[in-house]
Amino acid sequence: LKMSWAWFYPPLRLLMAVCLCRALRAPTSTFRSDLFNFYHSLILADGKETTVHLLKDIPKRYYFVLEEGRAPAPFTITVTPCDVPIEWSILRHKASASFLGKAARGDHDTQEISKSPRTPSTVSTIFNYKGNSVETYVGMSYHSALYMLEFLSTERDTHITVYLTTDTTSGHLYPELPLDPRIDIIGIGHTTVTLAWKHSPSVLQHRENIQYCLLVNEKHNYKSLCAAETAIRSSGMKVPPMLALSLSPYLLEPQQVMILSNSELSIINRASSGEVRQICVGTKNTYTVPSLSASTQYYFDVFVVNLLTNASAAYTGTFARTLEEPEPKLTELKDGKVVQVVLDGKKQKLYSLQYQARHKRIQFTFQSCRGQVQVHITKNGKTVVSENISGLRYFSLKGNLLDTYLVQLRSTEQSNSSVKVQVSSHFHKPLFPLLPDSLKIKSFSKLRTCNSVTIAWLGTQEESKYCVYKKRIEEDQVWLELQSADRCAGPESRPRAEKVLCKYFYDINLQRAVTTETIKGLDAGTLYLFDVYLMGPSGIPVRYYSKVVKTRKKC
Asked: Where is the Protein NDNF C-terminal domain (predicted)?
């Protein structure tokens, strides 16, 4: 039998002596099994948190013993399941002091042990648990006893954390919870919930090293920070190394959003299964969670986190349902009149318009001025249109006289959006001009020179006025210019110096309804933003999509 280096370390020597004693008294197959189990078990470190990976239906064992000469002392074991419920137990192998003393010193004879009719030792289970809660066992450890921890997962592969300590004088790895660890809900609004909880004793003693972190989601409460991080990963998102310490935006993944304001860190993890919001609030024990959805149930967890050790303890989670959104104020639409609506992207409020039909057939026109807009139209309570729009859209609807139409608008983006709305029963008097198949502006790379650019755009079969504008911009302004452009604003909003020309154009044959224009007098190696405005008979303009072109640097 080959001995490893562990034989020369007294606690491990003691453990191996016990295993050898049992193994040598058993049949050959049992002997090999005991040795296999020993070499596939591990010594549990004292004073350190150990991560244990469990395979389904395969038990895993850890052992611990005390160093020689130590007096009986209390010890604690804390086990934190990070996913599914597990089974775990503590077994004590107690042998006579003389036997273990000889084993620890190496004063034993293998043949003597094998001939011994029995070994003076007993094995007893002193604790067992099944579940997914964080559980702590407190007991007394003796130098003449060997302890074994056995862990088993019957649902699927998982991992847990285990913390053993026999030193009760140097403080706690885990922050302490108050006697009442419940989270109180002290206020509920349409989009906010205010929480309060009692201070952790650890915060009062070590304020600079402790902070509170919240977890907000729509699925369920989490019994540990470890379980929450596992759930976030399994939903397809990647969690920062430590919730409380992820202060750098470079640690975030594309599906994460970090918000840092008023010394509060908020990390929003997005996935198809929903949103998990993580917020660290320092040592405050009250917090109002903002930007929630109305009439939605949320689950709230509070963790007190030790910044030095990354260890955490969970308060008892709670849940609350935000208030229902109040009925939006209705604005009456009048036949043929144009209404421009600005939509708040941050609050995601609905804007409602109502129209009572004067004719059986009507037409709604929507022109998105900035951003994308969600349009929902009901007729007498039944949905007839539900779409996201950008640009110009028409919806022709049939019904009866005095039908009531309700139009609800909402921004699909976090930034503000705006849209023009018109309803009319006079189809022969269109408010907006006839549009081409595409509102894109094309540029010709081969026709670019150091001081000129040639662009082209599609026209229609209706004679209309087209005005071209140019604007000199810098490289770092391109994204902002394109995103902030108001597509409903006409040429009157532009400085006169940016105007290039206006021209009338049409062609009965749509295949030939295209026009080009060469803009001269430009600077070499310079970026320009070009816009084309189509002016209809009513005077309401439609703006083509802006085009950015750079003149050649050398010719």
From this structure: 382-555
CA distance 201 to 190: 34
Please name every residue paired with 92 in a beta bridge, in sequence order, or none if there are none. Answer: 124, 147
Cα 554 versus chain centre, distance: 48
Q: How does pLDDT run across 166-192, given as a tens digit for each residue?
A: 876 665 678 899 999 999 999 999 899
CB 516 within 8 A of CB 456: yes
Q: What is the CA radius of gyration of the chain?
A: 36
Helix/strand/coil (H/E/C) assignment for every residue in 419-452: EEEEEECCCCCCCCCCCCCCCCCEECHHHCCCCC
**Domain spans of the chain, in order of start:** 31-95+123-165, 174-238+274-326, 330-424, 441-550
Structure tokens given for 472? 């000199």
From the list 365, 368, 372, 369, the residue with the least C-alpha distance to 407 is 365
Helix crossing, 97-105 with 10-24: angle to 10°? 110
Architecture of domain 31-95+123-165: Sandwich (2.60)
Distance CA(266)–CA(366), nearest Å, equals 37
- Helices 10-24 and 28-39, packing angle to 10 deg: 160
Place of tokens 């009157």: 492
CATH of range 174-238+274-326; options 3.50.50.60, 3.40.50.1100, 2.60.40.10, 3.30.1360.60: 2.60.40.10
For residue 85, count CB atoms less than 10 angstroms from its CB and return exposed for 0-12, middle for 13-18, buried for 19 or more.
Answer: middle
For tokens 């249109």, the residue is 385
- Sign, CA dihedral 282-284-289-290, equals negative
For residue 442, give every residue at least 6 positions away whose Cβ sits within 8 Å of its Cβ, in sequence order, or none: 455, 456, 457, 547
d(CA 360, CA 397): 8
Topology agreement, domain 330-424 and domain 441-550: no
- Helical residues (DSSP H) of 157-269, grouped into ranges: 201-205, 225-234
**Topology of the domain comprising 441-550:** Immunoglobulin-like (2.60.40)
Q: How far is CA 107 from the centre of its chain?
A: 60
Q: Say if residues 452 and 520 touch (Cβ distance below 8 Å).
A: yes
Q: Helices (DSSP H) in 194-296: which residue ranges? A: 201-205, 225-234
State if pTM tops 0.70.
Answer: no
Number of helices (H) and strands (E), helices first, in the chain? 7, 36
Taking only the tens place, the pLDDT of each residue in 137-162 is 988 766 667 889 999 999 999 999 99
* DSSP state letter for 46: B
Alpha carbon distance, N-terminus to C-terminus of the chain: 85
At residue 314 the predicted structure's pLDDT band, cuts being 50, 70 and 90, is: very high
The residues pairing with 42 across neighbouring beta strands, listed in sequence order, are 62
Query: What are φ and ψ of residue 431, in 5° steps?
Result: -80, -40
In terms of Cα–Cα distance, which of 312, 311, 248, 301 is closest to 276?
A: 301
Coil, strand or helix at 5: helix
State the Cα–Cα distance between residues 270 and 256, nearest whole angstrom. 6
Residue pointed to by tokens 């009319």? 424
> What is the band of 228 on the pLDDT scale with cuts at 50, 70, 90?
confident
